[in-house]
Amino acid sequence: MTASEHIGHRFEQAAGKLFKEIFPRLGFEVCGEPVSRRGGSQYGFDVQVEARPIGAGVSVRFFIECKGASSINPMPLAEFSGKPEQLHLSGCCPDYWILFSPLRYITNEFQESVQRYRREYPFALIDWRNLPRFIFHCLGS
User: Fold this and answer.
1) Pairing of strands 35-37, 60-66
2) Which of 73, 80, 81, 116 sits most deeply, having the most CB atoms within 10 A of its CB?
């Protein structure tokens, strides 16, 4: 395993653990283990999590698109072009879509398109600027 593959594998394991710990603190009971999936030609992986709002009988599906990087750099819109259509065609059809990229920041082009993405799916972006705040909020510290 190359150093890059090793870092990618560790990031994948850490992302699954992070979301499994955070969802209960957001008021969700995680149903089963997060499912990680690699595919396509872009650097990263997807995590699918099924969770139930605590006290509710219905579950919701979270699709977490994780993008890795070796250093803080821009996350161009091209990395996500056509993603809502791909999710629909894949049969995944998540209730919530989270873009998780702790070493990326969004470009102006991406920022301008965020509102369109939010109309297509309930959508959240977790990047290097809001990750500490997100974790701090979730852990209730």
Assistant:
1) unpaired
2) 80
In degrees, to the nearest 5, what angle opens at C-alpha 26 toward C-alphas 80 and 65? 15
Between CA 73 and CA 94 the distance in angstroms is 27
What does the block give as tokens for 96?
């919530």
Q: Which of 32, 37, 29, 49 is nearest to 12 (CA)?
A: 37
Of 29, 40, 86, the C-alpha closest to 63 is: 86
**What is the predicted pLDDT for the residue at 141?**
47
Rounded to whole angstroms, how far apart are CA atoms 129 and 2?
29
What are the DSSP E strand ranges found in 2-134? 28-30, 35-37, 45-53, 60-66, 73-75, 96-101, 104-106, 123-127
